[in-house]
Amino acid sequence: MVEHHVTRRGIRDRGVTEAMRTVPREKFVSPGCEEFAYEDTPLSIGEGQTISQPFIVALMLEKARLDAGDKVLEVGTGSGYTSALMSRIARRVYSIERHERLALQAKERFEKLGYHNIDVRVGDGSKGWPEAAPFDAIIVSASAPAVPSALKAQLDLGGRLVIPVGRSEQRLKRVTRTGAAAFEEEDLGGVLFVPLIGEDAWTAAHPMYTATAPPSPETSASGPGSPRNAEGEGMEKIQLPGGVLDHTAFQRRFWAIQRIAWIIFTLLLVACLLGLLGRGGPFSRQTIAFPEGAVDFPVLSRWKAPEIMTVNFAPSSEDRVFTIDAAFLQSFSIEGVDPPEKATFVRQGRIGYVFPGNPAGSTQIVFRLQTQLSGLCRTTIGIDAETRAQSTFIFP
Ligand code: SAH
Q1: Region of 302 on the Ramachandran plot (φ > 0 left; ψ -120 to 50 alpha; else beta)
Q2: Of 91, 138, 82, 136, whose CA–CA distance to 116 is shortest?
Q3: DSSP readout, 167-188?
Q4: What is the side-by-side strand order in the sheet with 386-395?
Q5: Contact by Cβ (8 Å): 182, 158
Q6: What is the percentage of the chain residues whose pLDDT exceeds 70?
Q7: What angle do CA 169, 175, 181 make, to 5 degrees?
Q8: Spatial distance between the Cα atoms of 313 and 322, rounded to a whole number of angstroms
C-alpha cells in the first residue's frame, strides 16, 4: 500500500512512510473490511464515518511537517488510524472525537498495539483541546465550513494546522502560525471529507449545508485552477467517487447489488443444469415462429432420450405441410406422429408431412422423437413454403 498508493503518488516524508509501514491498518477497519484495508479507499468505521484514504492521510501528515519532538492534535479520531500514525512520528498525540463509541474503540486499539503516547477525549474538536495547547501541529480529519478560530489560536509559533474547509467545494488548507496574530494560509488541493460537526463547524441537523460558523473570506493564498502546493510539487485533485461520503450506504448498496448478482447467477446455473438434463429447462427448448404456425423444438437433449416436437398450425381450410430435411433424421428418428399425417412426400431432399387444415381453430401435432446422434446437429424445418435453420445439441 505504501509503495503503491503513497510513495508513487509523491509522498516523500520518510517519517510518514515508515509510520505507515509500522501501523497495521487492518486493525482500524470494521470487521469484514480487513481485506480492503490496504486499498487506497475510505472505509466505513461505523456511526456513518469513514477511515480516510491512506494517500490523503499521508498527504496531511506530510504537510503537517511532524517532528519527533512535536506535541500534536488530531480532531476527528474516527478509527484512530491517523492518530496512531502521528504517535509513531511525534512525541505526544492528543486526539478528540465527538462519537463516544468511536473514541472508546480507538483507545482500545491504541492500548492493544502498545501506543502509549496518545490521549483520547470525547468532545467537540472544533474548539480544540485548550488544556493541552499549544500544539506544533493540528490535523483535522473532517471538513469545516471555515478554519475554526480556536484551532488557529491553539497553534504554537511556527505550528501547522492542516484542515479541509469549504462550503460548496472542499479544499485542503495548511495554516501556519507565523506570529502572535499572523497566519499564512496555503491551498493544498480539492478533497472530500465527512463534515466536522460542532459549535465552530457544521450543525448536526444538516451537516453539509448548515454552518454555524461565519463563512471564511477568500484567501489570497488560494491556488489557481490546477492545485499545486507551495513547494511546487505536482498535486492531483483528490476526489473520491460519488456516494463515498455516506460510506455505509454506499457499501450497503454494493453488497445488495452483489447479492442480486449471485442470485441471478445461481438461477442461471440451475436453468442450465435443467437444460443439460434435457427436460424442462428454459434453455432446453425453443419456439420457432412461422407465418402459418409455430414449432416447439428441442435445443438441448440427451443421446437416446425420447423427445417431443410440437407443431402448431394456424387455422386454415387448406391442407398444411410440415417439412424436414435429411439431416433431421440423422439427429432424430420419428417414433410416432399424433394425430397421424394424411400423407407423406419427398421433394428436393425434404420430407413433407401433410395434415388436414382446420378452419375453426389451430391444430397441434406432436412428433415423438428419439435422439440419434450426439453432438451439434443443424437441420432445417418448415411449415408450407417457409423454412428455418435450427441447431440442437445432443449430449453423449
Ligand atoms: N482520521 C480518522 C477518520 C476520521 S473521519 C481515521 O483515521 O479513522 C472524521 C471523524 O471526525 C469522524 O469520526 C467524526 O465523528 C469526527 N468528527 C466530526 N466532527 C467532529 C468534531 N467536531 N469533533 C471531534 N470529532 C469530530
Answers
A1: beta
A2: 91
A3: SSSEEEEEEEE-SSS-EEEEEE
A4: 300-302, 386-395, 375-383, 320-325, 350-355, 343-347
A5: no
A6: 86
A7: 130
A8: 9
Which atom in ligand 1 lies closest to the alpha carbon of residue 196?
A: 19
Cβ 62 vs Cβ 11: under 8 Å = yes
Q: Where are the domains of the chain?
A: 2-246, 248-278, 285-395
Is 52 catalytic? The answer is yes
| DSSP letter (8 states) at residue 134 | -
Structural contact between residues 51 and 85, judged by C-beta atoms closer than 8 angstroms? no
The topology (CATH level 3) of 2-246 is Rossmann fold (3.40.50)
**Whole-structure pTM value:** 0.58
- Asked if residue 354 lies in contact with residue 373, where contact means CB atoms within 8 angstroms, the answer is no
Q: Give the CA distances from residue 144 to residues 23, 87, 168, in Å, rounded to whole numbers and listed in that order.
A: 27, 24, 11
- State the Cα–Cα distance between residues 285 and 308, nearest whole angstrom: 10
Amino acid at 185: E
Distance CA 383, CA 396 (A): 30
Which cell numbers in the block locate residue 156? 504554537
* Cα Rg of the chain, angstroms: 36
The minimum-distance atom of ligand 1 relative to the CA of 96 is 24
**DSSP-assigned beta bridge partners for residue 332:** 371
Mean predicted confidence (pLDDT) in 113-130: 97
Cis ω for the linkage preceding 339 (within 30 of 0) = yes
Topology (CATH) of 285-395: Immunoglobulin-like (2.60.40)
User: Residue 157 belongs to what H/E stretch?
Assistant: strand 155-165
Q: Is the pLDDT of residue 83 over 90?
A: yes
Amino acid at 238: I
What lies within 8 Å, CB to CB, of 30 at 6+ separation is 43, 44, 45, 46
CB-based burial label for 376 (10 Å; 0-12, 13-18, 19+)? exposed
Pocket around ligand 1 at a 6 A CB cut-off: 45, 49-52, 75-76, 78-79, 81-82, 96-99, 102, 124-126, 141-142, 194, 196-198, 201
228 Cα to the center of ligand 1, angstroms? 26
Asked if pLDDT for residue 34 goes beyond 50, the answer is: yes
3-state DSSP call for residue 330?
Answer: helix
Tell me the three cell numbers of residue 169: 467545494
